[in-house]
Design goal:
Length: 425
């Protein structure tokens, strides 16, 4: 599409947008009596208007039934995780029994690492991207130490080396070369689906195939990927994955996590795991006997019964995604992010003050653009905040913008660009 930098063009794009009506289903914080320009959905998504009703319904259910709420009503708490299964599977391209919603993100990462990181004297190394989100770094470090290994000699970090390449992101071939080089010492490839800092979307299918060729397990943290890009975890053969729900999935601060376990591992009770009673065979659960028998599929990694209030908020959001469709959201995301890229390039041509560190290949990114700024970067970020733009600052000098297709408009993007253009030089 040929873009134009004027406001009328942005409004024409909004008028032609088949997803524009979803914006009205969200609550925007206010700035001087007007809605903010919100570009921080990669950190915390906006609140869907349906969430309040979903929470109140569960509070009423609790008030009316007390403990019997586990077994009564249209959505008895006993089975609540099952009410999120179909939408979650659709969202990440999985079979229903391959997904479960439970716990929070890093808890699930540790639980699945306990099962799928099983180092031996020969095969013990982990490959991950350099500069992964700290939770992933800490999880890998402590899992390695749990097995009595040294993180310095066990964890291989693949880095882009911008001082040599001019790129702040990785090429797929660099990741594949690192996997091949590790060879039969490699136990696990554990990447983020989208790097939180640069916004790069990794080729998960290619990485999975390379990991399996090396005889290793392929796992992914999809915190910045689920609800951002279409996924096909089952078809790609991914062994396991985890994701949160409070970013692109708009399910509230600290919202529940999703977990994926490929069906090839669905009926492997011999897999080591940290177990809890909600993962035990449902038909025997209330017999309270010794001897753990995991449920079939991802549900066998559950620990405790559902956090109903957070699950209710999550269900309200998942219902919206199921109706809107990830393919439709991705189509708008590509256009929305490309439009922001076009406007930013125009501004930077006039007065160079930042570098786009997100891949320019639209297929290698989601709905995030990260700007590496000069020494005026913090002042620019503060100016945006003072003028009703909500973005994200990451040390030492990166501003992240996430134009989210579910609720951001093309006019939002235009106003963001104008605010940057008008910022003090």
């Amino acid at each position: 599409m040929q873009f134009s930098p004027d406001l009328d063009f942005a409004r024409k794009l909004d008028a032609a947008d088949p997803l524009a009506h979803w914006r009205e289903q969200f609550l925007f914080p206010q700035h001087h009596g007007a809605p903010v320009r919100y570009f921080c959905g990669n950190s915390l998504g906006l609140q869907p208007k349906t969430v309040r009703g979903a929470l109140l319904a569960e509070l009423d259910h609790w008030a009316e039934h007390g403990v019997e709420g586990h077994f009564r009503g249209e959505q008895p708490w006993m089975y609540y995780h099952k009410f999120l299964q179909a939408q979650s599977a659709q969202l990440v391209g999985a079979l229903p029994h391959e997904v479960v919603v439970m716990n929070t993100l890093t808890v699930n990462l540790h639980l699945l690492m306990c099962s799928f990181y099983r180092p031996t004297p020969q095969r013990y190394k982990i490959i991950m991207e350099a500069g992964a989100f700290p939770s992933d770094q800490y999880a890998m470090e402590t899992q390695v130490r749990l097995h009595g290994l040294n993180p310095e000699t066990t964890i291989i970090e693949v880095a882009p080396h911008p001082e040599k390449t001019g790129r702040h992101y990785l090429l797929t071939e660099e990741v594949l070369e690192a996997i091949e080089a590790a060879g039969d010492t490699l136990a696990l490839v554990m990447f983020g689906g989208v790097n939180y800092y640069t916004g790069q979307f990794f080729d998960l299918q290619a990485v999975t195939k390379a990991a399996h060729r090396a005889g290793a397990i392929a796992g992914f943290d999809l915190a910045h990927t689920a609800g951002n890009l279409p996924l096909q975890l089952h078809d790609w053969g991914v062994d396991f994955a985890v994701w949160c729900s409070y970013k692109y999935l708009n399910s509230g601060p600290g919202g529940p996590s999703g977990a994926f376990v490929h069906e090839r591992h669905a009926n492997r009770p011999e897999l080591p795991r940290l177990a809890g009673w909600w993962g035990h065979d449902e038909s025997e659960r209330f017999q309270m006997r010794k001897g753990f028998k995991p449920m079939y599929g991802a549900a066998g990694w559950q620990l405790s019964n559902a956090q109903i209030l957070s699950f209710a908020a999550h269900k309200a959001s998942l219902d919206m995604f199921a109706e809107a469709g990830m393919e439709n959201l991705r189509a708008k995301s590509l256009q929305l992010t490309a439009y922001l890229e076009y406007l930013l390039d125009g501004i930077n041509t006039e007065t160079p003050r930042f570098t786009l560190i997100t891949p320019r290949d639209a297929q290698a990114r989601g709905c995030q653009l990260s700007l590496l700024t000069d020494d005026r970067g913090r002042a620019l970020f503060d100016y945006l905040s003072e003028n009703g733009v909500v973005a994200d600052w990451r040390e030492p000098n990166v501003i992240r913008f996430a134009p989210v297709p579910m609720y951001n408009s093309f006019e939002d993007v235009w106003h963001l660009a104008e605010c940057i253009r008008n910022a003090p030089k």
